[in-house]
Amino acid sequence: MSVPPLHAGNIWHDRGWRPASQAPGIVDGRFARSTAADTPGRFIVPGMPNLHSHAFQRAMAGLAEQRGPGDDSFWTWRETMYAFAAALEPDDVRVIATQLYIEMLKAGYTHVCEFHYLHHAPNGARYANPAAMSLALIEAAKDAGIGLTLLPVLYMTGGFDGRPLGERQRRFHHDVGQYVALLEQLKPLENPMLNIGIALHSLRAVPPEAMRAVLATSVARDMPVHIHIAEQIGEVQDCLAIRGTTPVAWLLDNAQVDERWTLVHATHLTGHETQRLAKSGAVAGLCPTTEANLGDGLFPLADYLDAGGCLGIGSDSHISVSPVEELRWLEYGQRLATRHRNISARKAGDSVGATLWQASLAGGARASGLALGAITDGARADLLVLDDASPLLVAREGTDVMDSFLFAGNTPLVRDVMVAGQWRVRDFSHPREAESAADYRRVVERLASL
Ligand SMILES: [Zn+2]
């Protein structure tokens, strides 16, 4: 199926604008040079993959901002999150995720990597269909029209010392055999909008022998592999105490970390680890708004970019659902810490906006394990049309458009969104948004009343 011709514009490709006349057309949801494409606005950019999401946390955004009796930290936030997660059933997750995924599309995310760890029933028993929660997320992505890399999470232990999971962690997947069976059940569902991958929750939650066992299975071959790695100083110190080295160094020494891998929250890196991670080809998965919200710390961005490292962005806990805000915070965190400007642009004349958008497209695509993130032959036809009527884009040309898109004002500039050749958002609106918001209200009001 071809998309009918639209009005011509400029296509963002590899750090610059090209006239739409040079752009590929769209056939069966992919860009293809064999047909001419016209586009519906002056500025067309590739849609952004979101490389890290825990969908259910959308419904608790804003509920962990009240100070507790002691010093609040990631670990006190986690208690709030576990209490909230305890009551969720598959249909609740489907409704929350549908709402979230529609919000993502409207913000400019056209694909999401869902790091999914809530598998079992509230009492810890497996559902009649052990994939019930996974299927709820797949249905949500389909209803919203966003691409999905579903990453079921293996979560077995409560610390580097191998202690068993606590009461509030019983809904997680803790058995390697059952986990691999879930991957095998989901794998045949793959299609251009759905990829299945592996998520090892973290080194503290997956013992070394379990990691090796999963990665050695035939179903795991070629799958993307995601892991939370060094988000908190506490876990870095625990790893040092028990394994004699830091989490990133341990992983690089003990697994074949390459382009299949995404290291989420690679926040705390030594200089040597920064170099090694960059050279590995793995993606550093950065979630700047969540990392700020949780008080995690700052990633060594300039050194990593100088070493040629690959990165992408995720909205993680969804206190913000906007690639613009993630990239703004990524740059602003560095400016605040260094008291310098334009940190992401490493050479004179480079644009921060163009550099960050382009880098995050490449890293997000790599993390998703699919051909995405570029308006080029064979890639899935995911694109955003910016609102060229906005005052924010008046008299902007070249990379100033990207800098204004990311750094100017607070009005959304993503007007239309296409995924796999289908319009999902037209004129700032998604066809299912009212219905989804009503369902979401019903579910969250019920959860709040428990
Ligand atoms: Zn996470």
Shape: globular
- Under CATH, the topology of the largest domain can be stated as TIM Barrel
Number of helices: 14
Q: Describe the largest sheet.
A: 9 strands, parallel
According to CATH, the homologous superfamily of the largest domain is: Metal-dependent hydrolases
Radius of gyration: 21 Å
Bound molecules: zinc ion
Approximate helicity band: 25-40%
- What's the rounded overall pLDDT mean? 92
Sheet/helix structural class:
alpha/beta
Number of domains: 2
In the CATH hierarchy, the architecture of the largest domain is Alpha-Beta Barrel
Low-confidence stretches: 1-7
**Class of the largest domain in CATH?**
Alpha Beta
Gap from first CA to last CA: 48 Å
Q: How many beta-strand segments? A: 17
% residues in beta strands? 15-25%
Task: Supply the key terms.
6-stranded mixed sheet; 450 residues; alpha/beta; 2 domains; globular; disordered N terminus; single chain; 17 strands; TIM Barrel; Urease, subunit C, domain 1; 9-stranded parallel sheet; 14 helices; binds zinc ion
